[in-house]
Specification:
The protein has about 400 residues and is an alpha/beta fold. The protein is built from 12 helices and 13 strands. The radius of gyration is 22 Å and the shape is globular. The chain binds pyridoxal-5'-phosphate.
């Protein structure tokens, strides 16, 4: 990092800062209140009381009953637990329905299951339209008597596109199929009321909503068949062995209470900042394209392709100004593969490689948006000066489909 003394953090879909109130709520449970909530003595018991309160705070945010929550170590564990549980509950059913745009926590697990079991498990990955939305009719047609579980994310981490999970869950239910949703990006940003939607499993991750890293929740609807992933002690009523991450759970409870209070701000002030950033970039930078549906989208996420430049290069330049965002392509990994999400949406290579995601939070300000709007256009213009693709456009012979950047 160079001379910047300030960080403009717009990468909240990757992780969020722990809210100061959350940290404050957690600290006593690392010092004087270190008891084990399962202990019989009063010392442990007083931790148990706070622990139960946190469980209730989390349940309230999503319209669940507190007994329906199982604490896990992260969103990934929650996703794995749900999917593996369903397959074990219905060993005769070997079909999974999911989408092409899931987070690796679901996508890679499904692909792994397919190969691990010598293709005994069949996985249908539903395609998406250019704007990242799903075709409900195609979804319905994909379900069979063999389908054990549907796993579809509530909102996409890269584009923010929201899927109609309530409708999809109802369709699965009418066919007697379990429904899981990875709601890691949705919880705290959009209202969720599990009392009203027939979802069986829902995954949450603490660090995406201003709680610490390393804490997750799996919601398991009462009556849903369940096979634990981690077997050990009797914690979580035998649904997940291992001593609970007490302080992080108390922090997550506080974070959920705060998210409930700030939901309106997220959907008004944060959304307005996001819209200002988005409209500003799209109008000041030529050949910039919005990725994802304009309205069926999280209020904090903006994914823009700057054609004919490399996302990685943009990120490096932004970094010099202390601006944190992320890119959809993975040149640094040596793969040159643009994001599987943008590819599924049919974004051309020349655009997918230049995609940047800005993801905001309630901690962002209008000054920060103005700062980014001032810095980005010249960065893109300078990079395009050096881009053979961009120059090619002016002589009218740009060929999409192939990346010719130097890393391979
Ligand atoms: C971050 C994320 C995860 C993974 O959560 P971890 O707690 O980091 O394991 C899963 N799904 C989505 C949509 C995410 O954004």
């Amino acid at each position: 990092m160079s001379s910047i003394d300030k960080v403009v953090y717009m990468d909240n879909n990757a992780t969020t800062r722990v809210a100061p109130e959350v940290l404050e709520a957690m600290l006593p449970y690392y010092s004087e209140l270190y008891g084990n909530p399962s202990s019989m003595h009063t010392f442990g018991g007083q931790v148990g009381v706070k622990f139960a309160e946190a469980r209730q705070q989390i349940a309230t945010l999503i319209g669940a009953n507190s007994e329906e929550l199982v604490f896990t170590s992260c969103g990934t564990e929650s996703d794995s637990t749900a999917i593996l549980s369903a397959l074990q509950s219905f060993p005769q059913k070997r079909h999974i329905v999911t989408t092409r745009v899931e987070h690796p926590a679901v996508k890679n697990l499904c692909e792994h299951l397919d190969t691990l079991t010598g293709h005994k498990h069949k996985v249908t990955m539903l395609p998406v339209a250019d704007d990242g939305t799903i075709d409900l009719k195609q979804y319905e047609e994909s379900l069979t008597d063999e389908t054990a579980i549907v796993s579809v994310m509530w909102a996409n981490n890269e584009t923010g596109v929201i899927f109609p999970v309530a409708e999809m869950a109802a369709i699965a239910k009418s066919r007697g199929i379990l429904f899981h949703t990875d709601a890691v990006q949705a919880v705290g940003k959009v209202p969720i009321n599990l009392a009203e939607v027939p979802i069986d499993f829902l995954s949450i991750s603490g660090h995406k909503l201003h709680a610490p890293k390393g804490i997750g929740v799996l919601y398991v609807r009462k009556g849903t068949p369940f096979v634990p992933f981690m077997i050990g002690g009797h914690q979580e009523h035998g649904r997940r062995g291992g001593t609970e991450n007490v302080a992080a759970i108390i922090g997550l409870g506080k974070a959920c209470a705060l998210a409930g209070e700030k939901m309106a701000e997220e959907n008004s002030r944060v959304k307005a900042l996001r819209d200002k950033l988005e409209e500003g970039l799209l109008s000041s930078v030529p050949s910039a394209i919005l990725n994802g549906h304009k309205t069926e989208r999280l209020p904090n996420t903006c994914n823009i392709s700057f054609e004919y430049v490399e996302g990685e290069a943009i990120l490096l330049h932004l970094d010099r100004f202390g601006i944190c965002a992320s890119s959809g392509s993975a040149c640094t990994s040596g793969s040159l593969e643009p994001s599987h999400v943008l590819r599924a949406m049919g974004v051309p290579f020349t655009a997918a490689h230049g995609s940047i995601r800005f993801s905001l939070s309630v901690y962002n300000t209008e000054e920060e948006v103005d700062y980014i709007l001032e810095k980005v256009p010249p960065i893109i213009a300078n990079l395009r000066e050096m881009s053979p693709f961009w120059k090619g456009e002016h002589v009218g012979k740009v060929g999409g489909g192939q990346c010719k950047c130097s890393c391979s």
